[in-house]
Specification:
493 residues, alpha+beta, OB fold (Dihydrolipoamide Acetyltransferase, E2P), BirA Bifunctional Protein, domain 2, 8-stranded mixed β-sheet, 5-stranded mixed barrel, 26% strand
Length: 493
């Protein structure tokens, strides 16, 4: 790939030189904007209601997205963050420098226009420019057919071009920002406080995921990027904060798919004296209220149907759902050999390296998850799938856990949290054994157990995938469409 000025089109470099020769700075440090494009249109509407046909002078900057030069009269469309507006350029009205500058402009340049706003005979809001100011000369042309850029490779690798070209993409990320803000308002309104916990940790988390490892030079030790926020947030519950939440990045050294990215955003919350039932109510209320606040409705598009996020959501037991959709009641096959044999009997491909819990999870992801289009809580999970959840009273192998699904993907996970430090120790030990059997490293978190030994109140906890929730709310089918800069393979691959 060419580097430096070799990749810049010669025509644009020549125009840049021409502009400098005029004594014009092609990259000035500032511009005094008086109105956005949207504010200019609103100002014109107000003036028209007052009986005027044009506004007082305005200064409006933006990027050139269309340039129609027609002799003595030209039209330019400029876009900014609020919208677009047309410029009317007459050589009889422009100053000499602006006339000279006009022929050196290209699509992609940033300019400022000074003039009044009026409507053309076609009723188009338009700035009758008296002065043009170059704000930034674009040295690279926009991609061919930039309008509605569809090349996925370019869209993800050069997201700035995607944002320039596709209004719907800009709207998606504006919606994402509004969703996160609405979640914060909802949680704050419920009396939660937002906190921050470490991203770099001295030990790998106990969650079932592989961490990224880095090295701290001064301390001369390896550190692990977090794969969950849970254990630190629980320490805060132990310390006396009764309602806490955190919105932040999680890092997992695993594969990518339409619903997985190595780094993603979670909101985790913990509430003292709550259980998974109260957390369930909180999650459905939060998602429903965020949808109404951001979108104005609980109904969102999904492929060729619609999802209604209004409360209450459907509730299904984990066991019943897997039995219904896969035809296998996993409780009847309590060890890995029996379950593996039953799955093979059903014609299901089985990884011989997976343990019983992983096989049950495969039944969930293969047969159940894709069927849960309308918002649904799956409740009461097997103990072996949930080492941090509290057992359901009277059931030794079932815990008080739920996962929330919509659009065929998981969007939330929650427990009645385990607060018995001796029980927790035994589960950590078993989890370490399971990881070692799978060829992974594992270690009991003694620091967290020490914290639990000081007493932890009954607690309900949840984790909500922000990226996946935004996928549901915006009707996108890939997580890469809702992460500004997703991880990608090298171009050579």
């Amino acid at each position: 790939m060419p580097s430096g000025t070799e990749r810049i089109p010669g025509q644009r470099l020549q125009k840049l030189a021409n502009i400098r020769a005029m004594g014009i700075d092609p990259y000035p440090p500032r511009y005094k904007r008086t109105h956005t494009t949207q504010q200019a249109v609103e100002l014109l509407t107000q003036e028209e209601q007052a009986g005027k046909t044009e506004t007082s002078e305005v200064n409006i900057p933006g990027r050139i997205m269309a340039n129609r030069l027609m002799g003595k009269i030209s039209f330019i469309d400029i876009h900014d963050g609020s919208g677009k507006i047309q410029l009317f350029l007459s050589k009889n009205e422009l100053d000499e420098q602006s006339i000279a500058l006009l022929k050196e402009l290209d699509i992609g340049d940033f300019i400022g226009a000074k003039g009044v706003v009026f409507r053309t005979r076609s009723k188009e809001p338009t700035v009758r420019a008296k002065t043009l100011t170059l704000l930034s000369k674009s040295l690279q042309p926009l991609p061919e057919k930039w309008h509605g850029l569809s090349d996925v490779e370019i869209r993800y690798r050069q997201r700035y071009l995607d944002l320039i070209s596709n209004e719907e993409v800009r709207k998606t990320f504006q919606t994402r920002s509004k969703v996160v803000s609405a979640i914060r308002r909802f949680m704050d309104g419920r009396g939660f406080i937002e906190v921050e916990t470490p991203i770099l940790q001295p030990e790998a988390d106990n969650a079932a995921a592989k961490p990224f490892v880095t090295h701290h030079n001064v301390l001369d030790r390896d550190l692990y990027m977090r794969i969950e926020m849970e254990l630190h947030l629980k320490r805060l519950i132990i310390g006396g904060f009764e309602k806490v939440y955190e919105i932040g990045r999680i890092f997992r050294n695993e594969g990518v798919s339409f619903k997985h990215n190595p780094e993603f955003t979670m909101m985790e919350s913990y509430e003292a004296y709550a259980d998974y039932n109260s957390v369930m109510e909180m999650v459905e209320q939060m998602v429903s209220s965020v949808a109404v606040e951001v979108l104005g409705t609980t109904i969102v598009p999904h492929k060729d149907t619609k999802i209604d996020l209004k409360t209450p959501w459907q509730r299904l037991s984990f066991r019943d759902a897997i039995t219904q959709y896969s035809g296998i009641d996993f409780v009847q096959y309590p060890n890995v050999d029996l379950l593996r044999a039953k799955m093979k009997e059903k014609g299901i491909e089985v990884d011989p390296q997976k343990n019983w819990a992983h096989l049950v999870d495969d039944l969930l992801s293969t047969f159940v998850e894709p069927k849960l289009i309308q918002p649904t809580f799956l409740i009461d999970y097997p103990l072996s799938l949930s080492p941090l959840a509290k057992k359901k009273p009277g059931q030794e192998r079932v815990v008080e856990r739920f996962e929330a699904f919509a659009g065929g993907i998981e969007i939330a996970n929650a427990f009645t949290e385990l607060n018995d430090p001796l029980d927790q120790r035994e589960r950590f030990i078993q989890q370490v054994k399971d990881k070692q059997a799978d060829g992974e490293e594992g270690k009991v978190d003694e620091d967290f157990l020490l914290a639990m030994e000081h007493g932890m109140p009954p607690t309900g906890g949840s984790g909500i995938g922000i990226d996946r929730l935004v996928m549901i709310l915006t009707g996108n089918q890939s997580i890469r469409e809702v992460i500004l800069f997703p991880q990608l393979k090298d171009k050579a691959e």
